[in-house]
Structures are given as structure tokens and as C-alpha cells.
Specification:
Blueprint (H helix, E strand, L loop, with lengths): L10 H15 L24 H15 L16 H13 L1
Helix pairs in contact: 1-3
Length: 94
């Protein structure tokens, strides 16, 4: 996908984008389509291990055109789909 910043994503568009990224990176075979904002991620999805977290971060940077610093990431970012959407939205606002 092109590396373009999408600053005007609606909440639904952001959720759809994040679901697609989760599905692709974690090879969930369409399961992410059913994820809601409150769906737990870290600790709930066996596919989301440390290697997958790195792949997700890289994919988010490439897809949305921002850089993620090490000090911006902790477990709370990957707690739920909503926390990941909020993180991405915050990065796009900056």
C-alpha cells in the first residue's frame, strides 16, 4: 500500500483500517472483521506475540506515514482494538 498519511479518518474508517492491518499482519483469515473497539488484543490473541507487535508497528508506520518512537509504546497501546485505534489517531493528529 502507498505510504500516505490519512489525517482525516473518521472513527469508523480508522477502525476498518486497523482491522484490516490486524487481519493481514496476524494472518487472522477474516476474524478481525468482527473485532469491536473493546475487543482485547494483547494476551487474548495468541497470534499477537513480540514478533507480531514489531510487524504491526512497522506496518502502521508504512501505512500511515508516521514514525513511532520506542518510548511511545507500552502494553496499553495493544490492550484493545480501541486503544490501538486511539494511538493511531493521536499519531495522525501530530
Amino acid at each position: 500500500m502507498p505510504c500516505s498519511k490519512l489525517p482525516e479518518l473518521t472513527d469508523m474508517e480508522a477502525l476498518t483500517e486497523i482491522r484490516g492491518i490486524l487481519d493481514d499482519v496476524l494472518a487472522l483469515n477474516g476474524r478481525a472483521e468482527r473485532f469491536a473497539l473493546e475487543t482485547p488484543l494483547l494476551g487474548a490473541l495468541p497470534e499477537l506475540d513480540s514478533i507480531a507487535v514489531l510487524a504491526l508497528l512497522t506496518t502502521l508506520e508504512e501505512r500511515f506515514g508516521f514514525t513511532i518512537d520506542d518510548d511511545e509504546i507500552d502494553g496499553s497501546v495493544f490492550a484493545t482494538v480501541g486503544s490501538l485505534v486511539d494511538f493511531v489517531a493521536g499519531k495522525l493528529r501530530n
